[in-house]
Amino acid sequence: MVLVETLFQHLPPPYHVGLLYDIGCQTERSCVKWGFLDRYINRLTFGISVFHAFGHQWVCQIIYHPRKRTGFGLSDGEGCERFWHSISKLIAYLRVCGYHQRIYTLDHQVDHAQRETLENLSAWLLRRSRHALTKRKAAESILRDCGKSETDLQAEWKDQVETQTKPLPRQSQNAGKDAVKELLQMRETRDGLKKREREYDALIEDEATPMDEYIEAKADLESVPLKQRLRDRLRARKFEMERLERSFRKQVNANNGLDQKVDTHTASSVRSREPAITKVARSYNTLCTTMEKLFADGKAPPGAICPKQLKLKGIFDLDVDDTIWEDIGLEDGSPAAPPP
To answer: Could you give the CA distance from residue 119 to residue 240 in angstroms, rounded to a whole number?
Structure first.
């Protein structure tokens, strides 16, 4: 924070700064919540450095990834890492030298790196300009071939961001009891809710009916839509893996060892979230098992359909015929889910 504020003290008022940081999302949240850099917050755009972006959740990536955030262009935010790599040859020597000799060596190395950078600045600018023009021509070619206008694509992207950044529904231990209470209250107000009376009439005939157990289990699936939660997480993972696979194929064709290491690190970050997704799927299957038992005991209401359990094997493939897309037994009164 002090470095950023010092930077702004040396910049003219109209200047706008893009800040790429490993946890730029949390930094912006802290600035907004606690008033850090409040004098300059309207002149700051936060992002996440490319190397660390894939370690964040998908909803964070679509907002803070520098390739998806306006103003960063092809910057990757890894300037410090490049400098550390340039002085990595000194590691063995600096481990055994004295304190003052270490400071002297680092001081001269930094000064040498600065002079070398300034001497090669024109060549670097030319190389990066040509690279940017090549990328721009390729992007314009893709845009022309897709048959959609830039305005339409921007509107679609805005809708995608809005849909995928919605808060996921939270699970509640009292959801089943609340559902039963709501059904009993509907019995008292059925005169004013004729439409709902036709939907729930079979479920509210008797307060002591054993169907309440089935209603409670079904409410756990409906009012706490574990299935929708699971779909959102699987869909986000699919987006990440598809992007990673395309990047990996390009790097294999280019035979770039360093970029392959980056892709391996990225894949590990994506796969580290698989256990959490599997846990949600198991929770859903546990509720389905409870409902199947109530069906077997004859405690289900007339005409009810028991939802199918999910097959954990191959769940990350998201096949079009997978049971993850089926809402059989969950559709009465449930809001429409977004398309896959």
So the answer is: 39
Question: What does the pLDDT read at residue 48?
Answer: 92
- How confident is residue 338, by pLDDT bands cut at 50, 70 and 90? very low
Q: What is the pLDDT of residue 250?
A: 60
Which pLDDT score, from 0 to 100, does residue 336 have?
45
Question: How far is residue 251's CA from residue 258's CA, in Å, rounded to a whole number?
Answer: 9
The CA-based angle 45-49-55, given to 5 degrees, is: 120
Find residue 47's DSSP bridge partners.
Answer: 20
**Does the predicted TM-score (pTM) go above 0.85?**
no
CA–CA distance from 266 to each of 20, 54, 68, 206, 255 (Å)?
A: 18, 6, 17, 56, 18
What count of Cα atoms within 13 Å lies in the side-chain half-sphere of residue 206? 6
Residue from 238, 218, 228, 120 nearest 177 by CA: 218
Cα distances from 296 to residues 38, 291, 309, in angstroms, run 62, 9, 16
Return the residue matching tokens 């092809």: 74
Residue 100 has pLDDT above 70, yes or no: yes
